[in-house]
Amino acid sequence: MKEERPGRAACMLQGLISKYKNTNVAVRASLWFAVSSVVQRGISVLTMPIFTRLMDTEQYGQYQVFLTWYNILVILITLNVHTDIFNKGLIEHADEKDMFTASQAGLLIALTAVWSVIYLPFRAFFNRLLGLSTVLMLFMILEILGSSLISLWMARRRFEFDYRRIVRLTLSMSVLNPVGGAIFVILSEHKAEARIISNAVIPIIVAICVLWQFSRRGKLFGNFKWWKPALLAALPLIPHYLSLVLLNQSDKLMINYFKGSSDAAIYSVAHSAGLLMTIVSTSINSSFVPWSYDQMKNHGGEGIRSVSRLLLLLVLLCNVGIIWVAPEAVRLLAAPQYSEAAWCMVPIAMSVFFFFAYTLFVDVEIYYGANRFIAIASVCAAGLNIVLNYLFIPHFGFIAAGYTTLFSYAATMLLHLLFLRKVLTKQGKRKDLFDCGTLAAFTVLLIVLSALGANLYKYPWIRLPVVAVSLSVAIYQRKRIKELLQQMKKR
Hints:
The protein is mainly α. It is about 85% helix and about 0% strand. It contains 22 helices and no strands.
């Protein structure tokens, strides 16, 4: 019997390898996109304990406030032409992908140059407004350009299921960034500034290589005919993208204003850990978008209802799992002074479910060109979030910010659902593209399971075995998830 075990193990391993090799390339690509995204975000979260211990709460809070301004300015500078607009353009210009990609890279360079020309003469004003030095602002602008070009390259590779190069680049950057950041922070007395500059170095270097590759396959500045359509499509979406960032990031700025950078740092730990699943949901959506667009173009949307239902359930369960292990996650990720962050993770993780739900609706709205509705919903949600933060943060502290975010995301989902039905009616399409009844049931389930998990924070001997059993069931049902991915890739 002892001699048979190695043979059985080898056969099982060989069988798994054989199944993997025989799997459709699209399924393998989706798997690796998700794995690399989770690893990238996971390394970022797992290295958080290093920086929360190398930097005091005030320094870490300053770094997080910088990141918030970065997320706002990346939209204003690039107009996000490297995201949804580019994905749609790849479908429309499938026969000229190389030239189209190079053209959009040139557009990103031109947009960055314009904003640099605006900034430099008025740098004293902008520096006071953002609380940053000229050196940090210039590094931010370079990082924005570098990261946008890398995102453009990844979107192109993802469109062709070229997962190997994406995985290699993602993992390399995910390792080099925190290693370089730790070295910079240790060697410098100005630790917040050191972390900010180290963040920019790797994207800038990689972007130079990406630009060289783009220029070999197409002219960066020789195809201006695609610039105008991209700008016309992107500009109406700016209020939407900007509102999303404000909805997601204004909490830190307002906590910093009302309560100080130390409280902003504690909230940032919860925000980073609680939104760990954002990267998973975004990765899932990245695979869902090409398939759903193909469904709407060639099959009238058939299949979207059933697939989206299963995706919603998957995201729900993942976020509930994060909530149930929140105290342990915070202890692992940060020093003891951040322990209160666990209570913020409950509403923040719940909000990810509503974020994923309404991104499914937004995908359809973008497909049918309903940019006005998208902007209205996002602006209303961001405005609501800012008003609620203004009312509650001064009285209830940083924990209130998590619940204002949750309420605002839920409101955004409802608005997009209403607008989606209007769009589908106008297009003469079926209104039941998504299962609203199941969405309502999942919302109730999310509230119940999240509340139960939070009330069991003092009883880890109950929570952790439940999480372990649930994870075992999920692993057992992995074939069903694989079937779902296969269904999404029947294009």
